[in-house]
From TrEMBL:
Transmembrane segments: none annotated. Keywords: Oxidoreductase. The keyword Ribosomal protein does not apply. This is DHRS7 reductase. It comes from the Eukaryota. Gene3D superfamilies: NAD(P)-binding Rossmann-like Domain (3.40.50.720). Pfam families: adh_short. InterPro entries: NAD(P)-bd_dom_sf (IPR036291), Sc_DH/Rdtase_CS (IPR020904), SDR_fam (IPR002347), SDR_family_member_7 (IPR053011). Belongs to the short-chain dehydrogenases/reductases (SDR) family. GO terms for molecular function: oxidoreductase activity. The gene is Dhrs7. The lineage of its organism: Eukaryota, Metazoa, Chordata, Craniata, Vertebrata.
Length: 230
């Protein structure tokens, strides 16, 4: 049994609402006051989606972007200001394989993750004068978590009825371990997934015509299952 050497001074837990952007500067300052520095920021807040675009209220898309995208870059902005002063730090953003491909029933979620990919890949090019500030994008595939229970649906007031079986997904502990390995090694982008999802990522990257054909076939079946309540 490992005994932690951490003391109470080594731990600070703050409640944070990503959509309350006016609170992010104060939260950052609270952390700096307690620890004196921020070495790593892990952007891991967000919600997924399970609904067809034709059935979905536009308010849902606004809420997805507000939380997954704008909330993330708002917090990043305040922490990055500190890292630039120190000329050192790591910004780790949990994107998704949906940030590099498209999938049915997740148009808004995919859009928010594509936005994060574009933002952080662009931000990296603005930080060439700071070689010790790392921008790391983590792209997990299906992972065991509560993200499905909390997905956006056709409208903001509706929750999902059936979250389905998660036993086929990657265990949370393995995803965390691979994320830490990627962070320690300053990987610009890491795809963390089991097959067949990982194979689809490679198809999407290197053989997009085949990927589109495959996703159309898989998507048709997924939409039929969704409409049937599976």
């Amino acid at each position: 049994v490992e005994i932690s050497s951490l003391s109470e001074q080594d731990i600070l837990v703050l409640r944070l609402d990503l959509t309350d952007r006016s609170s992010h500067e104060a939260a950052t300052n609270s952390v700096l006051k307690h620890f004196g520095k921020i070495d790593v920021l892990v952007n891991n807040g967000g919600r997924s989606q399970r609904s067809l675009f034709v059935d979905t209220n536009l308010d849902v898309y606004s809420a997805i972007m507000e939380l997954n995208y704008l909330g993330t870059i708002s917090l990043t902005k305040h922490v990055l200001n500190h890292m630039i002063q120190r000329k050192k730090g790591k910004i780790v953003t949990v994107s998704s394989v949906m940030g590099i491909m498209g999938a049915p029933l997740a148009t808004g979620y995919c859009a928010s993750k594509h936005a994060l990919q574009g933002f952080f890949n662009s931000l990296r090019t603005e930080l060439t004068d700071y070689p010790e500030i790392s921008i790391i994008n983590i792209c997990p595939g299906p992972v065991q978590s509560q993200i499905i229970q909390n997905v956006f649906t056709e409208n903001l007031a509706k929750s999902i009825e059936n979250s389905g079986d998660q036993s086929h997904k990657m265990p949370t502990s393995r995803c965390v371990r691979l994320t830490l390995v990627s962070t320690a090694n300053d990987l610009k982008e890491a795809w963390i997934s089991d097959h067949p999802y990982l194979a689809v990522c490679y198809l999407w990257q290197y053989m997009p015509t085949w990927a589109w054909w495959l996703m159309n076939r898989m998507g048709k079946r997924r939409i039929q299952n969704f409409k049937s309540g599976v």
